[in-house]
Amino acid sequence: MNRTEADAIAQAILASATQAQQDRRRALDEKRAQEAQTMANKRRVAALALIGAPLGVAVAWLLAQRLSDGLIWGALAGAALGWASVWLRPVRGPRA
Fold first, then answer.
1. Is the CA virtual torsion 34, 94, 80, 46 positive or negative?
2. DSSP letter for each residue of 24-91
3. What is the pTM (predicted TM-score) of this model?
4. What is the DSSP letter of 10?
5. pLDDT digits (tens, 9 = 90+) for 30-48
6. What is the spatial distance between Cα 13 and Cα 39, in angstroms, rounded to a whole number?
7. Which one of 15, 60, 71, 73 has the fewest CB atoms closer than 10 angstroms to its CB?
């Protein structure tokens, strides 16, 4: 085997290893992006539940009902609204 053939074999091995590493990195980046999107969705639901809880308390107070029931129902309504907004929101592509 001469030097040219050895260089060609080495380049082929290195190129396949580099491509495999890039593929693994791309897959990991996609997984991290999906996890970040899931966390953002959960935070949106939690924020709307936290907004709904005091609104439920206010409505319960105005209707002379138990405040704890208003708190629970308000938070549930806010969470339901949050999950509906997550479900109805179109999926966005990666940010440039």
1. positive
2. HHHHHHHHHHHHHHHHHHHHHHHHHHHHHHHHHHHHHHHTT--HHHHHHHHHHHHHHHHHHHHHHSPP
3. 0.69
4. H
5. 999 999 999 999 999 999 9
6. 39
7. 15
